[in-house]
Amino acid sequence: MEVEVKLRLPSSAAHERLSAILAPYHRRTHFQENLFFDGPNAELASSLAALRLRFYDLESRCVLSLKSKPQISDGISRIEEQEEPIDPSVARQCAADPWRLLLLAESSGIIRRVKEEFNLGDKGLICLGGFRNVRGVYEWNRLKLELDETHYSFGTCYEIECENSEPEKAKILIEGLLQSSGIEYRYSEVSKFAIFRAGKLPE
Questions:
Q1: Which residue range(s) make up the domain with 74?
Q2: CATH number of the domain within which 194 lies
Q3: Looking at the 3D structure of the chain, how many domains does it have?
Q4: What is the pLDDT of residues 9-29, one digit of tens each?
Q5: pTM check: above 0.90
């Protein structure tokens, strides 16, 4: 179970201001490319599941993940997540020809689960497309903060996330930082994938 605090920032100005405040705590920046896959009849999406390839920093590494049963309330997201590393060159081949993903069933527990749980053995997979994300990683006040600038074909979103086993306490600390810095924010109400599928930015 992945448990995260998710707070949405309203503008690039708010994102830049928070980036400047957190600059002394910066550890690294990742350039991520996220691609999503489903069956031809939305077999995964209709079961509130998402199959994703995430490329980091061009081709330095790639992670295959399956997320399911998302819940988000009051800025805290809970979702079941299974992840596996995958060779970036193999992942690129799968992105170009999604049917290749199902050939990984012998070595991938995620793909075995997708074939069996969603009955996709004979139906294949299609690529839904995706989005890019620039993620700044910070270590602040014993929290790992991730500041996201997410680029969709229809616009850009800004969000701060923090995966933590005590999300309520983490949220209080992060909200205190934002409020004391005069940075507006809202509780995120939907995931990045849900925004992508909706094809429009949250209001």
A1: 2-198
A2: 2.40.320.10
A3: 1
A4: 999 999 999 999 999 999 999
A5: yes
